[in-house]
Amino acid sequence: LLFTNMDDRPNLAELLEWVRTVKWHNLGIKLGLENSVLEGIEKQYANNDEDCRRTMFSTWLNTMPQASSTRGELLQALRSKTVAENHMADEYQKSFQKRTHSAPDVPPPQGDDSFSPPPYKIPKQSNN
């Protein structure tokens, strides 16, 4: 994943990769979701933390204004006293800083799994 800015909105795949807290309910509250919504998620998924976390993040991304659903807001919520996932926040932020200050390491293509598009051919123009 290539991050560009802490003020940017994360995507769901990024959130699921980096934020694996079991304190998803408290995190949801800190991110501005209503407690009743979070209780509904908890009831729907019978305390399956992974499904609850995914649904909470999806709800956050789909219902909150873009200005309040940023990586920076997420870091602040993770570091709050009620969530207290400081190490997770630090790792997420380090990854962001590492990826924005240096080119990502991309391994060279291996074997037949690599794909190269055919060369672009310029169409011949007729002289009518």
Total of DSSP H or I helical runs spanning 4+ residues? 6
Largest sheet: none
- Poorly predicted regions are 102-122
Strand content: under 5%
| H-E order | HHHHHH
Average pLDDT rating? 80
**Tally of strands:** 0
Task: Indicate the topology.
Elements: H1 12-18, H2 24-30, H3 35-44, H4 49-63, H5 71-78, H6 86-101
Helix pairs in contact: 3-4, 5-6
Please characterize this protein's 3D structure.
This protein has 128 residues and is mainly α. The chain has six helices and no strands. The chain has helices at residues 12-18, 24-30, 35-44, 49-63, 71-78, 86-101. α3 runs antiparallel to α4 (49-63) and α5 packs antiparallel against α6. The chain is globular and about 65 Å long. The N and C termini lie far apart (50 Å). Mean pLDDT is 80; it is low at 102-122.
In short:
The protein is mainly α and 128 residues long. The chain contains 6 helices and no strands.
